[in-house]
Specification:
There is one protein chain. This protein has 2 helices and no strands. The chain has one domain. It is 93% helix and 0% strand. The protein is mainly α. The relative contact order is 0.04. Helix 1 packs across helix 2.
Amino acid sequence: MWITPKRQFQIKVIEYNSMQKKSKMTIDDLALVLAGQFSSIDQRFDQIDQRFEKIDQRFEQIDQRFDQIDQRFEKMDKRLDGFENRMVSEFAILKRDLDEVKERLGRLEKRSMEDDNALNSEIFSLRDKVIRLEKEFAKFKGATL
């Protein structure tokens, strides 16, 4: 219920007059005083409602911002999960390749040792033949002189 400023003034005058006269208030006077008080309370509630509406709007904005942040985190989580999965896969491939290289290197090392042993054996065999031929050549040379 909205009371005009003129009517509020009238109510205040009645309140003042009733206090000045120290007489009994009539029911109409009391109703006017109460109506004025309720009107001011209504105005205060309207102001409070407006403030709460502003606060509600702010909270809605904050909620929207949090929703946006949540969406960003979800996107980041997905990207990190994809990156992690890719890295795990790539590391598995690298480990497999490294194991294969180690195995091949081991085989080459073994073959190299076998080749070294074979070459050393052949070198020793050839050296022995050269020594034997030199001795025979020395005998042959000594016999022909």
